[in-house]
Amino acid sequence: MIRKMKRSFFFVLLLAAVVSCKKNNGDEGIPQKLPEPKVEEHGTPQGTPVVKSIGPAGGSIQSADGNIAVDIPAGAVSAATNFSIQTVTPTLEAATGPSYRLLPENVQFQKDVKITLRYTDSNLIGTNEDDLYLAYQDAQGYWNREIMTGIDKANKKLTAQTRHFSDWTIERVFRVEIASSDRVLEANEQAMLLVQYQDVKKGTNQIIQGVWVPDKNIETWFATGPGTFDNTKHHKVNYKAPASIPKTEEIAVGVRIRNLVNRRNPDRPGNTGLVIVQVPITLLPAEYFVWEVDGTMYFANSTDGTRVGNNITLIGTGLLGGLNITANAEKGEGKYVTGSLQEDKKIHVQLGFPQGTYTIYQSTIFNCNGKVMYGAGSMNIEKFGRIGEAITGTVTATVYVPGSGCNLRSKKVTGKFRIIRKL
């Protein structure tokens, strides 16, 4: 049910976008001409900014998360100047990762200032490195592509030279869109995929957001494993998982696009006219336990599901950690929330997570004052079969481990399971 609700909402949003476009010679949803760039609201500040005074000798500043750094050369400013980096909510539709506000704004530096923004593997889902660019939002609210964005693939960094500050983020020129719930499929289930691109207005760097790739530019959709498509030459397709999945398997589903974007960094690969973008999809067998942490999927090699009295235990153990759920319930099916296991319909979640040393995160933890606290979370058991039958459901929880002093480190974990009941 959760998967269907999420997918339905995703479909409604996409349908609204498609309906807003005109049909053109049979190309469903492809506008007759590119729309104009849109003015977007500037992002809302998040958290506390990093502030540093830098003078004529130059210096550097980086965000608290270390994702963005700014190098100010000697002579860029003539007097001590307060520089700051503030995380803001993203307003560029094709942004990936955080967005940042760099200040001072409305100041023209006397020399180029270097901006470096890091990206991760999770930022590449549905796109590729050669189509990542830095983008900035001007005072009027238009987003602009920094065409001469440099890329360091070995260290996963994007760089640009500028003489002005504003809001900056990473733009994906091409992207495959898929509902997050559709990235994990059981036998015969389907995933809807759409491919979009960002163009720029002729004679400017202003970004035109969210345009469907014309069908005539789609060479083919492909899968690196089993499964079928309802169409291989359309901007919107359905991929169907095979009828039989013997073991957990991660495949790539993607599309080959030709002869579409002209304005690219001339130093980038891909100017021959071919672009390939893809997303990972996990195919699940009859019994499974999968969970996601920090954008990475983990899979259980062994599972166990038992009930003794009112105690329900669900265990998933993988090569890289595990996820255990303990519940107190008179009945198996229904919704549970994190809390004391002495109360009905409460759960405790334990995540084994590899981060240097193997670390155990828990939904129940004592703070430095000795007071018990429970991370927010819930589990929904959709079916609780007899011994030899399946237990199916989903779980999401915030789990903790002690940090330095009174600080706690946390992770958010979401999972899905279909476990054959042993007891």
Shape: flat
Low-confidence stretches: 8-32
Q: Percent helix among the residues?
A: under 10%
Biggest sheet overview: 11 strands, mixed
Strand content: over 45%
Number of helices: 1
Q: How many angstroms does the end-to-end distance come to?
A: 26 Å
| Mean pLDDT level | 89
Instruction: Give the number of DSSP strands.
Output: 33
Radius of gyration of CA atoms, rounded to a whole number: 24 Å
How would you classify the helix and strand content by structural class? mainly beta
Number of domain modules: 3
Report on this model:
With 423 residues, the chain is mainly beta. The chain folds into three domains: 45-120 and 129-170, Chondroitinase Ac, Chain A, domain 3, CATH 2.60.220.30; 174-283, Immunoglobulin-like (Sandwich), CATH 2.60.40; 288-420. Helix content is 4%, strand content 50%. It has one helix and 33 strands. The protein has one helix spanning 2-19, and strands spanning 45-54, 59-62, 68-72, 81-88, 99-103, 113-118, 132-137, 143-145, 150-152, 157-162, 167-172, 174-178, 184-185, 190-200, 207-212, 218-223, 228-229, 236-240, 249-258, 274-283, 288-293, 296-299, 302-308, 311-318, 321-328, 334-338, 346-355, 357-362, 364-366, 372-374, 377-384, 390-402, 408-420. Strands 21, 22, 23, 24, 25, 26, 27, 28, 31, 32 and 33 form an eleven-stranded mixed sheet that branches. Strands 1-4-5-11-7-8 form a six-stranded antiparallel sheet, with no helix packed on it. β31 (377-384) and β32 (390-402) form a beta hairpin. The longest helix has 18 residues, at 2-19. The model is unreliable at 8-32 (pLDDT under 50).
